[in-house]
């Protein structure tokens, strides 16, 4: 298989990979618009189907989210070796993404970003999602808070600790760091990240008034731990963004 899948023959596997590449490239461009990424850092990865060995798509080292195209993404194995594409895999991305993919086969897509509001929440001692916004009725049972991550993720041991802590949760607020969100599809992980960041924005804005937050009844929790898209229009949301990108940044899908 050549490096740029778009130029290949029209086998089903190649078509499927290209469609996934376009979804991933769209999420990078949307993330750039929303201010989720930390300069040329932060990574989103996706396990690929139809491969002889477990492999994943990820952004190569050194690219801004806003310049990434579908053909720029590299394919790596779970040992961190680049199998297809140009560029290298950043070590911190290897230690976070590979270890989560290895530990949790359901974590097909891993989004690791530093959005403004979730990152700010991660810096406040003891802060968690308050059961104050309707979105939190769904988010709260899906979230874990990492109170031990005081250093950058520079080893497999730290990556394994993160993967164990995440367990079957889909959102990890990483103390002083940012957020990692996992899902069975690109659109699931993207939409859950989007909703978590927006909900945190509302909570942090309300907290700035200094007034107490209203608490919603605990019995209204949704207790849903399955795919995010089973409850929300995750696919439709990503499709809507892709229509915007098709008009304004069509090169994302090249």
UniProtKB/TrEMBL annotation:
Name of the protein in its database record: Aldolase
GO MF terms held by the record: actin filament binding
Species of origin: Neoroseomonas oryzicola
InterPro entries listed in its UniProt record: Aldolase-II_Adducin_sf, Aldolase_II/adducin_N, Aldolase_II/adducin_N_sf
Gene Ontology cellular component terms for the protein in this record: cytoskeleton
Coiled-coil residue windows: none
Family: Belongs to the aldolase class II family.
Entries under Gene3D superfamilies matching the protein: Class II aldolase/adducin N-terminal domain
Domain Class II aldolase/adducin N-terminal: 22-204
Origin: domain of life: Bacteria
């Amino acid at each position: 298989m050549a490096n740029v899948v778009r130029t290949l023959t029209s086998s089903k596997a190649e078509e499927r990979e290209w469609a996934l590449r376009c979804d991933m490239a769209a999420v990078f461009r949307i993330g750039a618009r929303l201010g989720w990424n930390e300069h040329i850092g932060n990574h989103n990865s996706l396990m690929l189907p139809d491969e002889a060995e477990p492999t994943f798509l990820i952004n190569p080292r050194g690219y801004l989210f806003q310049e990434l195209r579908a053909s720029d993404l590299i394919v790596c194995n779970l040992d961190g070796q680049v199998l297809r594409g140009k560029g290298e895999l950043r070590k911190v991305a290897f230690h976070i993404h590979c270890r989560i993919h290895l530990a949790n086969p359901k974590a097909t897509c891993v989004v690791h970003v530093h959005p403004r509001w979730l990152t700010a929440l991660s810096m406040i001692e003891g802060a968690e999602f308050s059961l104050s916004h309707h979105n939190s009725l769904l988010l709260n049972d899906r979230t874990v808070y990492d109170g031990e991550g005081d250093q950058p993720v520079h080893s497999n041991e730290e990556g394994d600790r993160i993967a164990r802590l995440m367990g079957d949760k889909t959102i990890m607020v990483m103390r002083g760091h940012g957020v990692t969100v996992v899902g069975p599809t690109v659109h699931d992980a993207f939409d859950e990240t989007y909703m978590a960041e927006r909900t945190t924005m509302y909570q942090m804005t309300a907290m700035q008034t200094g007034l107490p937050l209203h608490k919603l009844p605990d019995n209204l929790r949704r207790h849903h731990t399955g795919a995010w898209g089973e409850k929300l229009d995750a696919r439709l949301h990503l499709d809507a963004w892709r229509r915007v990108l098709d008009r304004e940044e069509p090169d994302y899908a090249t």
